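Deviations from the work plan: none for this task. Representative record:
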Amino acid sequence: MTSFTVNGQPVHYKMDPATPLLWALRDASNLTGTKYGCGAGQCGACTVHLDGQAVRSCQVPIGTIEGSFVITIEALSRDRSHAVQQAWVAENVPQCGYCQSGMIMAAAALLEKNRDPSDAEIDGAMTNICRCGTYPRIRRAIRRAARVIAGGETIAAAPPPGIDPGDAAHAVPALDPGPAQAAPDRRPGS
Ligand code: FES
Ligand code: FES
């Protein structure tokens, strides 16, 4: 058993200690906002915060983070009010969206360390991959979030998402087993 805190909740995972954090979060905790891209530490789609640092959760065996504190995209804020989330909406950053939770978590961690990053510093820190090429908008959104954090700009609240963020992880239809299905009849001619 491996124990650590996820989004403020103590969790005990009865999983192989070698299990990547990504799969503990997605499969055991149903926190599907954290995405699987490459599984090789390259793309950053799986980025979460581990003790305040942006990490690629596909590369972190849960057995190595006993007692740690993990934050996923679901808990970056309770109501999409984090400056990065506000700026992301205001700049219409996402295209297909697949990389975006990892991008947002990486951007939030960057702004914790550097409140006014230059474009070069953003490019150096944001090594996540976006197959849709949203990099210019990501750069603009990070600069804008920095201004919001500094108090130099306010952004009107984004429209409510229509679902309580606290319930979002439990509202993934693909994970609802639904009523038991009868096995299909595989006999010839059936
Ligand atoms: Fe983890 Fe790509 S899925 S870095
Ligand atoms: Fe599509 Fe980044 S928005 S992969």
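The two ends are 47 Å apart (CA to CA).
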